[in-house]
Input
Amino acid sequence: MVEPMQYVFEASDMSCEVPEADSFKTIFEGLSFAIGRGEIVDLVGPSGSGKSSLLTAFAQLNPHARGSMKLDGRAADEFTPQQWRRQVAYLPQKALLTGSTVAEAIRLPWTLRIRNTDAGANRSSRLRRLFSRQSPDAQARTMLPDERIRATLDSIGCEDIDLDRAPHDLSGGQAARVSLARTLLTDPKVLLADEVDAGLDDENADKVATIMAQSAARGMAIIRIRHRPPDGRASRIITLDGGTLAEMYMTGQGNDRHNAQEARA
Amino acid sequence: MSGNYYSIDIWGLLVALAMVAVAAGISGLMRMGIGKTLLWSACRALLQLCAMGFIMAFVIHSGNPWFVLLLIAFMLIAAVQITLSRAKGVPKGLAGPVLLSLVLTMLIMMSLVTELVIRPHPWYAPQLVVPLTGMLLGNTVSATAVGLSRFFESMRERRDEVDTLLALGATAWEAARPSMVSSIRLGLMPTTASLASAGIVTVPGMMAGQIIAGGDPIDAAKYQFMVLASIAALTLLTDSIIMAMAYRKCFTSLDQYQPIAK
Output
């Protein structure tokens, strides 16, 4: 007996058209996808097939994409773009860490208004913020003190990363993990990880995968673009090629609670 | 106005032109390749300045406020055109915002500096209003041209950072802010430098003119300070207004980053 699956994120009729010289090139069209709580799905396919375009479309970051999406059953247009991206977080391939220390880089999301006001884009609160004596950096520091960053980094196996170091001095693997930790700390419902383990050695790639698996175990839905051989953590592998999605279930390995699912069209 | 005023006759102009011609000749001998441009620009400047002189003389003698407004309107439109042609790599459709912010600061300048501080009679006194407008526009045009070029260049350079910020939930404003701050700073640098060097390294043009025309140097200094200070403040204001209107060009209505074609 299969009970109807509650999807945390659903997308249908996704299409992407990139403008060229004087026409449009269709990357994909009419794609549908859904993911449940705590599920890890791998997205594979030849380069140029539009995997990144699909993930940025899910996060409403892609100006060339259209489609209808739902989060917890609520349509995307009920959210402001900022509210949506807070829950559906896109993690770019290139780890971009700003500021002079790792701690500052990790606090970046807390300097943004979406995490500093409850109402979001309320006009009076915007004015009040403009004249409030506390700087966004100081606010971020109160909301996310160094101790909490330290504890989180330790809990995900990043004891080797010093908070006072300059992001510039981190190794590629460390930068990738800091960037991942920053997005995980914002606690999104859906994580869209765009080839985060590209350019990492096997050991660091495995560390990154373990960190994500821990978050998935706590209920985060994760879509990973990967070029490496399957690591057994995903419940499904989806191939994007020639503008269509093909699904493959990983029976016998990974999270076996998803094995009973029916294949969706 | 008291004291002596030394007029320049046609021979004076010829001497100035001859100096430029000699300089151009030297550059020609040394193959620096700027002689022609220098000579051409000097002739152009002579023509433009004489034309401005005749128009000003006409407007002052006419005593008609409409002529003053017409002249200012012409200067504003020319300022917009020069700003946009000097700014490199900026999107289309900025003429409106640039004109709007120039008009706005013009009005503030007119009402605060002219009508509240100097209080000339008649209120539109062309010999005051037109040169003040010219000085304000000259400064804001270069500041906004530099600022706009730098802003869009910076947004292109910061592309990955902007995308990361947006992905973390930043608004378009928050994602564009570092570029806005750096471009306004860059555009304002000559203005702050001119404030700092005034009176030590340079005798600014307006003060020099007033003293040469036989005005009281103390009076000239007061005028000059007021003009420098208000121009600095208004240049910052114009630049900020234009940035606040232009940054949206880099984003779609859904706060997605939209690269701007060069």
About this structure: Chain A touches chain B at residues 59-63, 81-83, 85-86, 89-92, 94, 96, 98, 108-109, 112-115, 121, 182-183, 186 (CB under 8 Å). The longest strand of chain A covers residues 7-19. Residues 98-169 of chain A form one domain. Confidence is low (pLDDT under 50) at residues 252-265 of chain A.
